[in-house]
Amino acid sequence: xxxxxxxxxxxxxxxxxxxxxxxxxxxxxxxxxxxxxxxxxxxxxxxxxxxxxxxxxxxxxxxxxxxxxxxxxxxxxxxxxxxxxxxxxxxxxxxxxx
Length: 98
Hints:
Blueprint: H1 2-20, H2 25-46, H3 69-96
Helix pairs in contact: 1-2, 2-3
């Protein structure tokens, strides 16, 4: 599972850098989106990849099955901020093309 996530992160970074180096403004926005998604995956993978692990400990559960909720909260916040930045960049793109 870790190899698949690492390969996906590498692919997103490579595609994002390729799009950033393109000449078009739309390519720049798509490249930034891809790089932000790669950063989100890095943050999520830093918390450990556990399948079907709950973020909270219930009665009778051990701490080994616990998923770390901090990277999940950070990624959720990064997604919201990324969406706001995307809306701002699209607005700038529309306004600059007039």
